[in-house]
Amino acid sequence: MNLKVIGTGCDKCDQLYANTKEAVAKLGIEAEIEKIEDLMEIVKLGVMTSPSLMKDGKLIVSGQVVSTDKIVKLLQK
Question: How far apart are CA 50 and CA 76, in angstroms?
Fold first, then answer.
C-alpha cells in the first residue's frame, strides 16, 4: 500500500501525517508513507486542497485533518 500525505508543510499537514502513521501502526500493515510538500508535485497529483491523503493513487481525504480512527476505517476499505 502506498500512502501520500499531501500538503505544504503546515501544522494540519503534519497532524494528518502523524495520524496516518498511527493508523498504519494500529492496523499492523505494511505501507509506504510519503509526505508530499513540493508544490509542483502536488499540482501534478491534481490535488487542490490540503491537507489531503491518497491511498494507492486515489484521493481518500481532501482538505481536512481526520482522526486516526477515521483513517483506520478508510484504509480497511
Answer: 22
